[in-house]
From TrEMBL:
Organism for this UniProt entry: Lacticaseibacillus jixianensis
Pfam families: 5_nucleotid_C, Metallophos
Co-factor(s): a divalent metal cation
Protein name from the UniProt record: Bifunctional metallophosphatase/5'-nucleotidase
Lineage: Bacteria, Bacillati, Bacillota, Bacilli, Lactobacillales
Domain 5'-Nucleotidase C-terminal: 321-476
Length: 516
C-alpha cells in the first residue's frame, strides 16, 4: 500500500491567482490553483491520501488584510480554505499578526482540525490538539502539529498574551514514542524550516531555534516531515526522512509518498519519496473562487480607493537618477520603517525600475505596485564599523565609465539586483565613486557628529537584508534585537491611515559623487 501526504504552506491568503498589481491577473500561483492539483493527485494516488494546510494562511495578501483589518471577519477568507478538502491545519507564525483573539475566531470557522503541540496556554494546548490520528485505508496515521517557537521575537505581548512557546524539538520528543504506540505512521507537520544544510548538517544561518527542521528529521520515529515558513521549494530525503517545503502563495503542492508493508505489528514504512508539483498551469478552481467572490471584488474596489494624498511630487521619473539623488518616495518609505520600529535610522531600496512612486492620490494598489516584496522589518544593533561597511558595499553598485556613473555590471546582469542597493535615512553620508572600492564613504554623520566605529546604533532594514541577504556579511540574524512581522505593504497602509496627507519632501541626506 502507498500513503500519499499532500501539503500546501505559506499561502498567505492568496486565494485568487493575482498579486493585485492590477485587476484581472492570472498568475502561476494561488490556493485556487493548488486545489485542482490536489484533486488530481488524489485521483492519481494508489492508496489513501492525507492533506495538510501547513500554516501562514491568515495574513499576507490584500484580501487577507481586508478581511482582518477592514471587516474583522475571518470567514471572508477561510471560506476558500474550507473548499480544498484539507484533513488538518497547522498554526503558522503569521497567524498571530492580527492578534490571538482573531486567530481563535478564524480557527473556529475552519471545517478541519488545527493541531499545535508546542504553543501552550497555562500548560494546555492553546490551539486545537497536539496531535490527531487519522485512519486512512486501514492505516492509522498520527500527525503531530508544531510551530516555530520564535514567535515572541516578532509579536508584541498583546498578540500572544498568556502563551508559552516551547521548543518544537522538545515537544516532538515528548510525543513521538507515544504516537508510535497509537499509530502505524507518524508524520510531523511543522511550520518552520531548516537552519542547516540538508546534506551536511552544517549551519546555514544563526542557530536561534527559529528553524529546527533538521533536528526534527534526526529524531527516531519520524516517518515524514512537512515543513514551511521559509518559502523555500524543497523536496527530498533529509536524514532519510521524506521532507517537503512547498514554496509560497500556493505555487507548489508538496507530495510525500510512503510505501507501506503489513507486518504482524501493523503497517510499517518500507520506502519513501518526496517531490513538489507546480500549480501554475492549473485552471483556478471555480468553487474556491466562488467562496470569496464578493470579498475578492470588494478587495479590488478597496485597492482602488484612496488611502492618502500627496502634497508635492512623489513620483519617480528616472529610477537610476532616484538612486543617486534622494527622492521623496524613498524618504517616505524610510520614515514608515522608522515609525514602525521606533528607530531613527533606516535603509531601503528601489527594488526595480518599474515603480513610479506615488501620484497625487495614493491607493493601496499603488502601494503594492511600488513595494513589491513581502518584506517584514528587523532592527539591527550595528556598530559604526558595520554601518560604514554596509555603505561601502552599497557604493559598489556604481561604477565610473568614461567619467559617467553607471550601474556595476554584476548588479544588472544576468539578473537585475537593484534591490541590493540601499539608501539610508537618519545618516548624512557621501559616496564618492571616484575613490577605490572600500574607500568610497567619505562622509558619515549621525545627528551631525561623525559615526564612531566602536559605537552602536539601532538600524531598521527589511528582513531579507537583516539576515545578510545580498551578501551583506556585516548583517546577520545574531544582530537583530527586535522585529515587526507585519508585511511592509500593511505598514505603509497603516501609516497613511494615520497620516492621510503627506508632504513630498527629501532632505537629500546622502550624496553620490560625481554628480551627474
Amino acid at each position: 500500500m502507498q500513503l500519499t501526504i499532500l501539503s500546501t504552506s505559506d499561502t498567505h491568503g492568496f486565494i485568487a491567482p493575482t498579486n493585485y498589481v492590477r485587476r484581472g491577473l492570472d498568475l502561476p500561483f494561488s490556493l485556487s490553483k493548488a486545489k485542482p492539483v490536489i484533486d488530481a493527485l488524489r485521483q492519481q494516488a494508489t492508496g489513501p491520501v492525507l492533506t495538510i494546510e501547513n500554516g501562514d494562511y491568515l495574513q499576507g495578501s490584500p484580501l487577507a488584510y481586508y478581511a482582518a483589518s477592514i471587516k474583522q471577519d475571518p470567514r471572508l477568507e477561510t471560506a476558500a480554505y474550507n473548499q480544498v478538502g484539507y484533513d488538518l491545519g497547522i498554526v503558522g507564525n503569521h497567524e498571530f499578526n492580527y492578534g490571538r483573539e482573531y486567530l481563535s475566531k478564524a480557527i473556529a470557522t475552519l471545517n478541519y482540525p488545527v493541531l499545535c503541540a508546542n504553543i501552550l496556554d497555562h500548560g494546555a494546548p492553546a490551539f486545537g490538539q497536539p496531535y490527531q490520528i487519522f485512519e486512512k485505508g486501514g492505516v492509522k496515521v498520527a500527525v503531530l502539529g508544531l510551530t516555530t517557537s520564535y514567535i515572541p521575537h516578532w509579536e508584541g505581548p498583546s498578540h500572544i498574551h498568556d502563551l508559552t512557546f516551547e521548543s518544537p524539538v522538545a515537544a516532538a520528543k515528548q510525543w513521538l514514542e507515544r504516537l508510535h504506540e497509537l499509530a502505524d505512521v507518524v508524520v510531523i507537520a511543522y511550520h518552520g524550516g531548516f537552519e542547516r544544510d540538508l546534506e551536511t548538517g552544517e549551519p546555514t544561518e544563526a542557530l536561534t531555534g527559529e528553524n529546527v527542521g533538521y533536528q526534527l528529521s534526526q529524531l527516531p520515529g519520524v516517518d515524514a516531515l512537512v515543513t514551511g515558513h521559509q518559502h523555500r521549494e524543497l523536496a527530498g530525503l533529509v536524514n532519510g526522512v521524506p521532507t517537503t517545503q512547498p514554496g509560497y502563495r500556493g505555487a507548489d503542492v508538496g507530495v510525500i509518498t510512503l510505501d507501506l508493508k503489513q507486518t504482524q505489528a501493523g503497517w510499517q514504512v518500507a520506502g519513501a519519496a518526496a517531490k513538489l508539483v507546480a500549480t501554475g498551469a492549473a485552471k483556478a478552481d471555480a468553487g474556491v473562487l466562488a467562496a470569496v467572490k464578493q470579498t475578492q471584488n470588494d478587495t479590488e474596489d478597496w485597492l482602488d480607493s484612496p488611502l492618502g494624498r500627496v502634497q508635492g511630487d512623489m513620483t519617480i521619473q528616472d529610477p537610476q537618477a532616484a538612486r543617486r539623488v534622494e527622492t521623496p518616495y524613498i524618504e517616505f518609505i524610510n520614515k514608515v520603517q522608522m515609525a514602525a520600529t521606533g528607530t531613527d535610522i533606516a535603509g531601503t531600496a528601489l527594488f526595480n525600475n518599474e515603480g513610479t512612486g506615488f501620484g497625487q492620490t495614493i491607493t493601496m494598489r499603488d502601494v503594492v505596485t511600488n513595494y513589491i516584496y513581502p518584506n517584514t522589518l528587523a532592527v539591527l544593533r550595528l556598530s559604526g564599523a558595520d554601518i560604514k561597511a554596509a555603505l561601502e558595499q552599497c557604493a559598489e553598485f556604481f561604477s565610473l565609465q568614461e567619467g559617467q556613473l553607471v550601474v556595476t555590471e554584476r548588479f544588472a546582469k544576468p539578473k537585475p539586483q537593484y534591490y541590493n542597493y540601499d539608501m539610508y535615512q537618519g545618516l548624512d553620508y557621501t559616496l564618492d565613486i571616484s575613490q577605490p572600492v572600500g574607500q568610497r564613504v567619505t562622509r558619515l554623520l549621525y545627528h551631525g557628529a561623525p559615526v564612531a566605529s566602536d559605537q552602536y546604533y539601532e538600524v531598521t532594514t527589511n528582513s531579507y537584508r537583516a539576515a545578510g541577504g545580498g551578501n551583506f556579511a556585516m548583517f546577520d540574524p545574531s544582530k537583530i534585537v527586535r522585529e515587526n512581522q507585519k508585511d511592509m505593504t500593511e505598514l505603509i497602509a497603516d501609516y497613511l491611515q494615520a497620516h492621510p496627507v503627506i508632504s513630498a519632501r527629501a532632505d537629500h541626506n546622502f550624496t553620490v559623487l560625481p554628480k551627474m
